[in-house]
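Input chain follows. Return structure tokens only.
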Amino acid sequence: MPPQSLRAERGRNSDPSMRSILRPFRLLGLSLGLLATTMYAQPFEGILEFSKHTGPVLTTYKYYVKGDRVRIEEISARGDVQGIMLVDTRDKTVTAISPERKLYMDVPNMRLPKDVQTTVQKTSEMKDMAGYKCEKWIVKSPVEDRILTYWVAADEFNFFVPLLETLNRKDEQAVFFLEIKDNKGVFPMLGIEQKLDGAEVSRLEVTKVVKGEQKGSLFEIPAGFNKFERN
């Protein structure tokens, strides 16, 4: 195309009416780009540190997350690792490790899921916690004399629901969370368990979230550890 024609072509595209016609297509392209980014958002990988209060008892935990695997560490008041659980949410397996005794054992899951009757309320109330905007969710069960209040953050925490299902714990913090529909991809930065009269039973609170690639060796049984066999 001759230079004169190129200038003419540019002139036509700079016409206000032409720009107004093309604008929706540009917006459509932007929307599709944002949609593609959302569709291919990466699942959370990193470390979550949190504390659990049950009455006067305080326990500290760390979750190391990488894909389908989660390493759970229980930390003592002095900062030592007291116990470790390696959870594979794809294979639905749990391995308990004792760092002190250098032993490990497979943890069978023989418990039937607990069936509870609940009502769920997702509010529009928001709070800043651990660097996230968290939404307030309430799960209530008069039969169980419990009300659970969760402040949840959304950040592709896709591991959490499969983790709860694999561990199959019977505590209300876990059982009630699984009662919530559309609970995929969120993590409770704060969970408060109360009786219906308001008395607090337990509290789980995230204190730190660190995103980053985790070493695969964290999710493997350490070399030199022996399997504990029941006699």
